[in-house]
Structures are given as C-alpha cells and as structure tokens.
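Repro:
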Amino acid sequence: MAKIAFILLCHKDPDAVINQAQSLTAVGDCMSIHFDARAPRAQFDTIRDALKTNPNVTFATRRVKCGWGEWSLVQATLHALHAAVAQFPDATHFYMLSGDCMAIKPAQYVHDFLDRRDVDHIESFDYLTSDWIKTGWREERLVYRHWFNERTQKKRFYAMFELQKRFGLTRAIPGDITVMIGSQWWCLRRQTVESILEFRKQRPDVMRFFRTTWIPDETFFQTLVRHLVPERDIDSRTLTFLMFTDYGMPVTFHNDHYDLLLSQDFLFARKISAEAHDLRRRLGVLYACEGARFRISNEGRSLFTFLTGKGRTGHRFAPRFWETESTLGRERDLLIVLCRKWHVARRLVDCIRTSTGLPCIGYLFNDESCALPDLGGIQDSMDKRHRHRRALLRMLYEHYDSDRLLICLDPSNLDLIEDFCRDRSVTRLLEIDCDFSDRDLIEHAMRVGLAGDGTPPETLARLLPTIRNDMALETDTLRDRNFAHHSRLREADPPARNARAIAAFLDCSEPIAGALATTDQLFAE
C-alpha cells in the first residue's frame, strides 16, 4: 500500500502548519517540512517544538530564503526531499504541498488512487511547443540568465535582461534535455525522486542552467522527470485542484466550497483560505474517515468561469479593426433566432426552411458540430468562426446566392448580437421565450459544463437558482438594449400572437406565419 511523504513548503501561520502535519501523519503517512528562512525564527521554533515528538515528521536539511520565480523554491524542495528520503525509507510516494493545501478526499481514497497505477503524477508539457504559457516571456526565461527577483528587485531584474539582450548574451539549453513545463504541485514515486537526487550530483551543468532560469519550479522537476522516466510511466497531470483568475492570481476557497471541492477529480486543493475555519475543520475530519463514497463531476473550473463572469458588463475588448471596417452588406438581411432550448429553435428553423426556402444555419457560433459548407477552412474551428464572423457570414451569403440568411444564436452571446445589430445590414431578432423546468436547467448545466453525471443532487439544488436568475438577467439585458426589429415568440402566448411575431421577423404572409406558429410539438421536449 502507498505510503506518502508529504513535502511541505510553507512560510507563515505556524498553527495551521502544525494542524496540517498532525492531520496528514495521523493515518500513517509522513512529512518533511521546509519553513521559509525569511519567516521569523520564533515561528519555526514553534512548529519544531510542537512536532518534535512526532516520528513521522522531519525537517529540511537546511532552511532557504525563498522568493517567487527564484531557484530558491527548487532548492528548498530538494532540501526537504533529501531529508524525507533519508528519514522515511518505506515512503513510496512524495507529494508536493504548500501550507495552503488540504486534502479533499479521505486518506483511504488517496492511497487507493495511488495504488491503482504505478506512475508519476506531474504536469509535463513541451516548453517550446505547448500552449501552457499563455502570455509573456517564453524563450527569454531560458536563454537569458536571471540573477535577481522580478518582484522585489524589478529594476535590476530588467536591467540585466536588457543588457544581455543588447549584447546578444544568450546561452544554449543543455543539448541532451528537452525542457518541459507544468504545475509545481506533483506526486512522484520513490525511484523517481532518488533518480533526481542522483542526477543532481552527476550533472552540475544542468543544475547551473536551471539556477538562473526564471520560475524554475515550473520547469526543473518537470524536465528531469521526462528525462529520467519513460513516458508510459508518467501521468501528465497534477493531483492538486487549483484555479487562477483572469489576472493570474490563484483562486481562494472558502467555507461554502466544501461540496464543490469534494466533487472534483483531485486529491488535494489549493488555496484554502486561512479564515475558512469550518472548511478546514471539515476537510480535516474527512481525511481520517473511512468508507466514504464520492460522485466526481469535475465541474469546478467551468462553474468558476460561469459565476465570476456574471458580474461583468460591457465589452472586455474593443471591436477588432477588420470587423469594424467591414460589413455584411447594406442590401442584406440577417435573421437571428435566439433560444436557449436549441432543439426548439432547430425545430422552428426546419419548418421555416421548408416553408420559405430561406437559407438557414443552426448554432454555428455555439455548436462546433454545426453543419457548414466548405468555405476554405474559415469554418473549421469555433475560434476562427468568432474571429472572422463577418467574413464567414459574407461567404455564406455568397454560397447560397442569397441576400437573406437565418442563423441561430444562444441568448448568452450578447456581444455577437450587439455586433451584428450594429452592422449596416438589416438585422432582425426573434427571441423564443421557453418555460424551463428544473430538469431543463439541469440539462442546460450539463451541456455547458456546469455539472456532470456525478454532480450530487444537493449541489444541483444550490446551483439551479443561480442558473434561473442568470437566464432572467440575460433576458432583461437583451431587452434593455432596445434592438430594432426585435420580436418575441413566447411558449405561454396564443398562436395568433406568436404568428404576428413570426410575420414581423420573416416579413412573410400571415398564412405562412400562422402555419409556423402552430408547428406541431414546437415546444415539446
């Protein structure tokens, strides 16, 4: 059975560190602690005195002053690993943690998970070809030397960078290694850790290289594991659940996140708020319990994106220049059906196509699988469709040799709706207002990734009011824009009223509109 040696890097809150160590070692696992040398000595003494009688706790062979983005974080980890390997010869796995991490599964679950596959769990993606780095420096982290801390010695950091850049003082990456990148929160097997510590002695050239790279805790272990371990023995993922805001800051979890955390397919989570006393207590109790079962729905990241996005109004980015300078055409009509129940919109649109011969496209900006003609590749991905939205629609007008085109959009695409309504073409909207049962909302949540098959009923019950209120807000926001040519078709309205809305939208005769308004089973599930 797996026995874990936790490698804990921490720098504050001695009481929390003590509680964390006692909780994780109470079930037979062990821990090696590195407490930042920048912290007061008295705090370190408090931790050491409280844990000195615990045989499953040891301390790093040396305390290092740590700084973000520096080699010091890797050095501190190596010191803690060295102590753990020597002190705990029966440890099978070494799990990297911070003082803000806590288990979100019981110890029994954690051990069973590690026993199922004999692999190293570490994010490890090709540094130069992957998209792990979203913005900012890439090669510059490696080919230039970085001696100063970017946050505390900003002027020196960038002055040295500019000096090297001006004189072309770049360096080569060691030829026999491929630099990899990933999360610094990993879980490695004993043989892998021992190989890393041995490699450290044998390859001083590689050590010198990484000592002056920028943010080496995201590359050092990730690179060495790939260099030393066969690919089949690596699961390129972190077992610690963490999220970041749009501004690159880690998301902090609070008391009301307990159920959310338990339903994620991870063993630990970071960061748990120091003020979330109830959450910390409940997670501590959870780790020691036996026989617990979990529904893994894994909706945490999509749910966070959904909820945080609701507080934003307006446009984050200005319209792109190629969009503002182009138009669909003054003589063209764009008809947009807006409906959250996609099957209802598709049913009506199929009838419109049959009755009028109007070229109709489904949810081309929402559904990757939406059938589109070959337009030279512009239709291949959702990213291309959004980026070249006007060009895409112009090509569709030309493909169908028509000045009228009907498309479907989800009402959540307010930016697209506003963009098309600003165009020089005539844009008409038909909003289909459907009734939503709780079952409808659950299916919507699953379709957009807010819930999964394993999401517990109590979590869904808490989520439903948020989704319902969000839909109501979207509807109000849409109507507050006062778009011209905006018609509404409501499930609760009589066919005669809906026929008038369809006639205004399509600019068609009353008999055709009446037939469409009475489409058989239009609102049926």
